[in-house]
Specification:
By secondary structure, the chain is an all-alpha fold. The protein is globular and about 85 Å long. The longest helix has 30 residues. Strands 1-2 form a two-stranded parallel sheet. It has 28 helices and two strands.
Length: 749
Amino acid sequence: MRTAERSVRAELWGRLAASDPGLLRLTAGLRTVTAIALTLLALALLRADVTHLVAGAMGAMAGTFAIREKQRGKQAVTLALGLPVALASVSLGALLDADVVIGDVFFVALIFCAVYGRRFGDRGTALGLIGFQTYFLSLFVRATVPLLPGLYGALVIAFACSAVTRFVLLAQTPAGVLDRLRRAFRARLAQLITAQIELLDAGEQDADKSLELVRVRTARLHESALMIQGQLTEGTPDEAAARLLQRRTADAEIAAERLGLMLLTARGSESADTLTLHLPGASLPSGGEQPMRDADRAALRRDLQALRLLVLRPVHADRGTALSQVRNRLLGYRDEENLPQAPPAVRDVFRGLGEAGRAVLGLRLALDGPVDDSDDTPATTRSREELDAEDAAIGSGEEERAADEKAATGPRPSTRAAVQVAVGSSLAIVGGELLSPQRWYWAVLTCWIVFINTASTGEILVKGYRRLLGTVLGVVAGIGLAGLVGHHTWTAFALVLVFIFAMFYTAPLSYTLMSFFVTAMLGLLYTLLNSYSLAVLVLRVEETALGAACGIIAAAVVLPVRTDRRTNELLVTVLDQLADVTRSAVDQLSGAPPVDLLDKARRLDQSLADLGASTQPLTHPITPLRTRRDTVRYVVALLESCAYHARSLAATAELLPSKPSMAADPRLRGAGSRIVRNIEAIAASVADRHAEAGVEAGPSIASLLQSGTSADARYGQVTDRVLRHLQRLDETVVGLARPLGVPITRRGN
């Protein structure tokens, strides 16, 4: 009974970890709610009135969510600096309340400084947010000079409660975050394998649905890998440990993605391209009769389930159990003589299971540490020796791999955003005053928010639309809740806490949902301040629409960054990094000195993620340009396919120093040069439409290989391993030229 309960708890915890990697959303929500609850409790014990309760709650929220630094020491300094900023801001709000013109001018200046402060990193961003939010607080509670002593006390208590929550009750360290991210990666890897099992068993009617599930879970696994990458520096004790975890995570991700492609190929008589796995709406390849027999399907299902079990169980659970036999069987598939008799495509899947088993073993050893190897078969022993050799190569190469990213120390937002927000806020103040002299600041708040984390006019337009939609829905909910709650103060505060948690938990998932919870919460706060009425909530919608419109106008007129320009800049960055990764990987596979390929590959992945985010206005369901939307999705899918093959090339190149059985193949440099030239030509054409750049297509990559002159035949092994990736990358790059309008020149075979 207890075993079953533990299993259920472990399953639920695994699902939670997979849905919220690192439990970052859960922690953010709980931390903010706890800080507010402590503040309300302390103020209630001091018999504070409702106005100070509301001010304390808003101050605790601002002092908690604004801080984004990872190190606890830096968090403490920022929180300590935030308190005088908050006190000064609320003081100026109260002092300038009587002088409308001067108050408005100061508010615009404060907004400009708050946005401009982002160029100074996380601390500048946090202090800017605290300053803006506490000035807004003074407007919300209608602060006056006589109220200032009480507001000072509420803010001091709020920041103290925020500190207690952050550093005592819900303390969070970079190492702890990384540990939870690693567990999330394992949980998402297990979920991806489960989706692959469903794809294996799916009939013709359910095949596309199963493929979509595989596609979504592959993307989520990649997201987890990027999150781990962002936490490695602070969360690991040294550079060697960071690189080891980075390597093992990348190996597991690539092996899982490759296994999914092999399953797609085995389902039909035609080879599945990586585009099938990356393009939303793509269907399974169909080419006639399926080559897979029922016995093959049963064996694959058994081994996929075994692989999933290996992912979830700690490595020390293997010894003396059936799990060690499962592990040994999977690793045995790396040897040709252990592959079952089956069609070639199915045998490839078993090979993929063997490589995935090796990657999972490496991941487990990196996360759980070494264990007794008495149950190992020769195949397992060989895999362990290979992993140990790779670990030694990673550790010994640290001195030679100087960090070449030091220049990228953090975000430096330009002055453009500060000027745009200041202009938009000025328009919002004027329009808001015309709508309501008492509550004009709602328009300013919306204008401010739509500029956060946006970089183009299209992104601001989409964000403004989502905020307006969420606000309208939140007003409807606020009307009903305010009527139900009435003047029951603590019931209203309890619901406010629920909505605040939901707001932070859903913020990364849906901006519309977050806006809904914010508006519903504000409706309850209005009720507490005896300001509730249907007219107030309708005014909230009007001010929101006005603020969004002012933000869009400012973004479109003042130093505008067009969505096309923004996406083109990011596209060129992606292409430049793709060329860099491909060139470096091919050079290393050809015998050049080793370089930091995994970091290059991860920078490519991050740039591709930035490009995907910037194209959301072009692919949003409300866009009227359907053909353009489909083209953008197709281009992004092609780039994701290119990135997958580049990651695979980089991972194979990193194996060379630790693989005595493999040697660099000097023929690859010449064969891969065409791919790099084509990528650079596309980048030049995107950067300058008048550039005379073209893409060359022609003979296959295999046919470009010159006869080797080296007496060492080991380089043939590395060629066999990367030739398919090079060929697919070559074809995908040529395919990328077509939707981007780059001329293609064909050479004869």
